[in-house]
Amino acid sequence: MTSGRGAELALRLAEVRSRVAAACARAGRREQEVTTIVVTKTFPVSDIRHLADLGVRDVGESKDQEASAKAAELASRGLRWHFVGRLQSNKAAHVAGYADVVHSVDRARLVAPLGRGAREGGRPLDCLVQVSLDADPSRGGARPLEVAPLADAVAREPGLRLAGVMAVAPRGADPDEAFSRLAEVAARLRQSHPGAVMVSAGMSADLEAAVRCGATHLRVGRAILGSRPPLQ
Ligand SMILES: *Cc1c(COP(=O)(O)O)cnc(C)c1O
Predict the structure, then answer these.
(1) Atom 11, ligand 1: which residue's CA is nearest?
(2) Which of 30, 48, 89, 200 is the most exposed, fewest CB within 10 Å of its CB?
């Protein structure tokens, strides 16, 4: 059954998939190396159902309340839930109860509650250290020098798996330059944590640069779902 919205999502998803395929071809990378996470924040569960019908397995959300309600409603669909938003320490244990991957671990205070939530849920939680590429505190992220100690803390915490790094390109920055710096941080981290292979970078506007710079996971919202209402 293809409603208007289902057809629209199918079209935009196909456009993004071909952008990713073209970017991989130009970068000499295999498409299977790059996973597109569809960031569905602010959009209804019905959209996620359409996306699941279209073969999407990885979805991203950025607010605990919204994410947990959607994950509960779609529990039977076998989706992988990526928490990509800023994380408050008093919400961290709750997020660990439904998320498969948390992309935004940017300070040590989050580690214990994430670990507790993961252990209570009885399943391991993949964690990415979010790296700040411009030290803008409003966007979150650990400074590059803070990454190693934070990563060590994640790796030591029972229930958590250190899976890699994540970043958002700074506003107005050249995304190739920003994502190259992220790639250097990721390479350094893999010297001490060889399993930390995920590099989450690239959104609707800069996914080509992220693919060029070695991203393994793209987080794409608007290019697939359309524009979001402005954040309150
Ligand atoms: C919303 C969001 C995205 C998706 O951004 P688009 O520009 O809609 O593709 C990616 N990453 C994070 C952390 C987000 O909050």
Answers:
(1) 219
(2) 30
